[in-house]
Design a protein that fits this description.
Structural class: mainly alpha
Number of strands: 0
Number of helices: 7
Strand content: under 5%
Largest sheet: none
Radius of gyration: 15 Å
Distance between the termini: 46 Å
């Protein structure tokens, strides 16, 4: 048997090429209407990494409707990592009163570091 190492989502995201970005774009409407938090978080992370600005409004809405660190924390982290701290603070300030105090502190720490 031959075993092939399956790429992780992170490895796939880091190596997007034009055709893969077309796939991202063609499925974006499907993901925009999705209610599954795990999948939507991954899709929005992909949008941050690829600077897909058309979905930043969806990102803002999502991060203001889900307060769990499990789903929102990675998005703040990715915004920070991609040099989009200003957008991160804007989203945070829009929704900081919605977040639990512990989550609020964690998100502030991510954006401030």
């Amino acid at each position: 048997f031959f075993f092939f190492k399956q790429k992780t989502a992170y490895e796939m995201l880091r190596s997007l090429v034009g055709s893969e970005m077309c796939i991202r774009d063609s499925f974006s409407d499907i993901f925009s209407n999705l209610r599954q938090c795990e999948i939507l978080t991954r899709f929005l992370r992909l949008c941050i990494i690829t600077k897909f600005e058309e979905k930043y409004e969806l990102l803002d809405q999502y991060m203001g409707s889900i307060g769990r660190q499990l789903y929102v924390g990675p998005l703040y982290y990715e915004l920070k990592r991609q040099g989009m701290t200003e957008l991160g603070w804007k989203i945070f300030n829009n929704h900081k009163d919605f977040y639990h105090p512990i989550a609020r502190r964690a998100f502030m720490k991510i954006l401030s570091s």
